[in-house]
Amino acid sequence: MIKRLIAAFVALSLGVALALVGAGAANADTNNSDSKNTDSKNTDSAKNYVLVLWQASPNFTPKFPQSYVADTGPTNSTSLDQLDGKATSCGTSYQVDLYANDSTTASLLSGKVLNGSGQSWPGGAYKSSFSKHIQTAACAPVVAASVSYETIVWSMPSPNNGTVATYPQHGVAQYKGEATPTLDVTVPTTCGTQYQVDVYVQINGKVDNTAALDALFATGLAGPNAAQDGKYLAPGGLGQAWKFVKNADCVTPPPTVQACTTYGSVVSHDLTGWNTSDTRATGHYAVTADGLHIWTEGATSTDKVAAYYPTDFALAHAGTETVGASLDYTATTGIAPGLQQVVDFNNDGTPDGILVGEAVYGGTDWWLSNSGTLPGSPTLPASMTTGGFGSARHGTLNDWLALYPNAHVLAVGFSLGSGVHADGIVKRITLGCVNYTFVGTPSLLDVAAGDPSNTNQLCTDSQLVGGVITVVITPHVGYQITGPNGVVPFNGTTGTTSSLAPGAYTVAVAADTGYKLTSPASFPLTIAAYDGVCGQLVSHPIVTPVVTSSQLGCTADGSYTLSNDLNAPNGVIWTVDGSPVAPGTYSVTSARTVTIHADPNGPNFGFSFGQQQDWTLTFATAALCSTLPTLALHDGTLAFTGSNPTGLLVLAVFLALFGLVLVLVRRALALR
């Protein structure tokens, strides 16, 4: 009792102290009349409080421990309404307490349990000024779930006797949420199939098997294993929880020839691609502008025309046209040819015979050639063995399909003869949804393309200029130029290309439709690269030709010398009297005229502007050599008579004059 009085006294003292400092307190009780008191003076900028929501005992009887629900964390607000949104469980009592934001409160919150009142400040639990109670509305009464059912239809891989299951089974249909178990649901009626219908408990009170049944439906039943679905089956046993449904066996209708909805086309300008090996010596064919002209010369065994085009289609796709509609033929003489279908009855890739269609037998009857065989030797119905047809084995294409549903046609064509004299035009054959027509090709007109030409790469104004190809534009001729970089465009009027790089090129030529080319279809051309240096001009040395000469003497030959100031042996190209000569010295032995011409040896050498290039040298006999006196010699001595000093003096004078003449002559020669 004393402890309770002391606690009350302490609490009262704390309340008075808080009131004196202007602290606001709040008290609220939504359902149990505890007052809520908030005082804005107790709110400051510091976060001094923590509000905690506890789950209280029913009717708020002081029963501990109380479990933690939520708290605000540190806050500066003393409002007790901050955690109302956290009190959400129906029919539940909550207690809201305001605590001081201190280590004691932090320790309390870490434990998440309130073990009694008086923990932390201010006021602890159950203090009217700092706590309140919340009572949520009572929960709605719990209504027990009703039982619902699901019916699943399973398919079986093969029909049985209607009472034995086969596996694996696959889900076909689900019927969910049925109030009562039922097996009367829609089951596929596909002939020759068998189904199992099972009823399962989908929901029973709080047990919901919906997801499990969905997974079972997706997986299927692998075998008669009750563990797969037995625990979900509705009670009741055979005839109530499950049943079998077996549909009647399927009856396959006999195959029939289908009508064509679209048609292919084969146009022949000649019989290339057709097998004409059965055409005999006096049977003929020719594709003309009107169609395929066929004829025989008489009515002998060699009078036969036949042709077959290879194909492969099911006999069921032969088309429903009559023989007359399938063969567009105009007869000039005699009968029409018969249509032919080379047939492989058992579809093993080997022809078994030929079905022949002739309009004379009603247009829908096809008879089997005498050489044909029937794989498996089936018994023909009486309707296929009557007389009056091309052979005793005949019938419609549907009759033949009834015997051989998988029959294929390997070739189609026609045959006229043998032993038939006839003439006519085949314009069209229609079999297997394909129209075979014949159109003669008109004579082609000759056309020739002119030879193309080209220029090589050049150097113009110190710039490389590409080569050009020119084709001769000819009517009804097409051209294509290709080179190292692919197709080369050209001017359609002039036939010239733009500038092209050096390399190998080809001009391909083709004639237009209706024309044939008489010239080559391809012309190879090569654009050669410029052979030299194109760009900055190169300076070459200037050479000066030098010509010197010496005249004829009384006792020596004349000469002339050809050289240049650079002493370059190949600097000047010399010609003498029109003939090329090498530089050097040449002798002249008799009087004559020498004509000399000089050219620079370009491009490595050049002449200055105005340089002399031509010389004319005249060589003549010396004049003094022909006018000197001749002294008479007698026995090798000068003529001398007596001892007269006058004679000796004359002789001495003469000799002196002769010596003087010789000196003058030599000086004259030296001056030359």
Q: How would you briefly describe this protein structure?
A:
The protein has 672 residues and is mostly beta strands. The chain contains 7 helices and 41 strands.
Structural features, described:
The chain is mainly beta and 672 residues long. The protein has 7 helices and 41 strands. 12% of the residues lie in helices and 34% in strands. The chain starts with a helix and ends with a helix. The N terminus is likely disordered.
Keywords:
disordered N terminus; six-stranded antiparallel sheet; 672 residues; mainly beta; 34% strand
Topology:
Elements: H1 2-20, E1 49-55, E2 66-71, E3 93-100, H2 103-111, E4 113-114, E5 131-135, E6 148-155, E7 170-178, E8 194-204, E9 207-208, H3 210-219, H4 226-229, E10 242-246, E11 264-268, E12 283-288, E13 291-296, E14 304-314, H5 323-326, E15 327-333, E16 338-344, E17 353-357, E18 366-368, E19 394-395, H6 397-403, E20 408-417, E21 423-431, E22 434-438, E23 445-447, E24 453-455, E25 458-460, E26 463-465, E27 468-470, E28 477-483, E29 486-488, E30 503-511, E31 515-517, E32 522-527, E33 545-550, E34 558-564, E35 572-576, E36 579-581, E37 584-588, E38 592-600, E39 614-619, E40 633-634, E41 637-638, H7 645-671
Parallel strand pairs: 11-22, 23-31
Antiparallel strand pairs: 1-2, 1-3, 2-4, 3-5, 6-7, 6-8, 8-9, 8-10, 12-13, 13-21, 14-20, 15-21, 16-17, 16-20, 17-18, 18-19, 21-22, 24-27, 25-26, 28-29, 28-30, 30-32, 33-34, 34-37, 35-36, 35-38, 38-39, 40-41
- Average of pLDDT: 84
Radius of gyration, taken over Cα atoms and rounded to an integer in Å = 66 Å
How helical, in percent, are the residues? Answer: 10-25%
Number of helices: 7
Structural class call reads mainly beta
